[in-house]
Amino acid sequence: MRPEPSRCAASSWRAQHTVGQGSLRGGYSARCMSSPTHGIPAPRPATQSRGILVISGPTAGGKSALAMEIARRVGGELVSADSMQIYRGLDIGTAKPTTAERAEIPHAMLDVADPHGAGFTVADWLRGAEEAIADMHRRDRLPIIVGGTNLYLRAFFEGLDDAPQADLVFRASLETLSNESLREHLLAVDPARAEEVHLNDRRRTIRALEVHHLTGKPMSAITTQWDDASPRVQREGVRVVVLDWPTPLINRRINARVKSMMADGFLEEVRALLAHAPLGRQAAEAVGYRELSAVLARTMRLEDAFEAIKIRTRQYAKQQRVWMRRFETMPEVLKLDASILDTSALADRVLEAHGSFPV
User: 0.90 cut: is pTM over it?
Assistant: First the structure.
């Protein structure tokens, strides 16, 4: 049974925090912060603005730790915007929050999909996230979206794009083709997208061909239209925090994380997943899972897989950083250099700067 929330009063999740003093102005007392009540302060008054906080940044950049710290202080709950943490059993390789962390602060959109089953779409995530956010607001909790996956954040901010729904008959006709043949077809109709998608990524290759088949337009053109547009926050009360890192430092953190994952049993996790059943297409493409599956299939050496995982993760972090630059002109965004502040100080800065965010 979940413990009752603390009865300590809180004026608002926007309470001002004194940087470096460990005290709070107009917020929770030290006694409330340490109260053994599931780590969650009392609910905010129902009359207060029902905001949403989004924390974004590159992988291994400390987003989850910051979200947890803020949730502890303001009575928040987390919504994962990671396209691989949705899968049950993909734990170590996705840096999924631990059981203890999830017991302390509730997390939504984790373990909601079968890694061996059909794909999980952006629409599926958005629907689940919207339901979770509405539930948190009903219980006067602050939803904190923690993301990583650009497509998920894009859908949250601006809704789903104009790309067509699936054509199952057309997809089935492509399933019989080899990876090389699919690549040739994509090069013919959308060379820009072909350059972005790995040869072995059948799911994205087939989707790009499907979009062209249904619209007559290359998928790269559709996504470029959105990327070139000025981002808009269409929701009242949304605040965005972007954690920034110098490239050498975030790459060092990524390398250390991958090493830690391997020491924690990443290979054994993949072995157990494959022993149950083959991974579905989406889960099979997850960073690390593809490489370690190849190790277990004896088509890649473990040493090579280790290096490949680090490289792919660094490339992914670069894509995230490039994509997040488009938010820099938004008035709702607070950009912080996470390399010079610890988690507690970052939380202080977020809670101090909230007043400049429009409600």
Answer: no
The answer to whether position 292 is within a domain reads no
Report the C-alpha dihedral over residues 144, 150, 156, 158, rounded to 10 degrees. Answer: 140
- In this structure, are 25 and 148 located in the same domain? yes
Positive or negative torsion for Cα 29, 30, 34, 40 = positive
DSSP string, 286-297: STTHHHHHHHHT
Same domain, 27 and 105: yes
List the pLDDT tens digit at each of the 359 positions of the chain: 433 333 332 333 333 332 332 322 222 222 233 333 334 444 443 334 468 999 999 999 999 999 999 999 999 999 999 999 999 999 999 999 999 999 999 999 999 999 999 778 888 999 999 999 999 999 999 999 998 898 899 889 877 765 566 777 788 888 889 999 999 999 999 998 898 888 888 888 998 898 888 778 888 777 655 554 544 555 668 899 999 999 999 999 999 999 999 999 999 999 999 999 999 988 998 999 999 999 999 999 999 999 999 999 999 999 888 888 877 667 678 999 999 999 999 999 999 987 544 33
User: Are both 148 and 186 inside the same structural domain?
Assistant: no
**Whether the Cβ atoms of residue 138 and residue 46 lie closer than 8 Å to each other:** no
Q: Are residues 22 and 148 in the same domain?
A: yes
Host domain of residue 200: 168-227
Question: Are 110 and 135 found together in one domain?
Answer: yes
**Total domain count, the chain:** 2
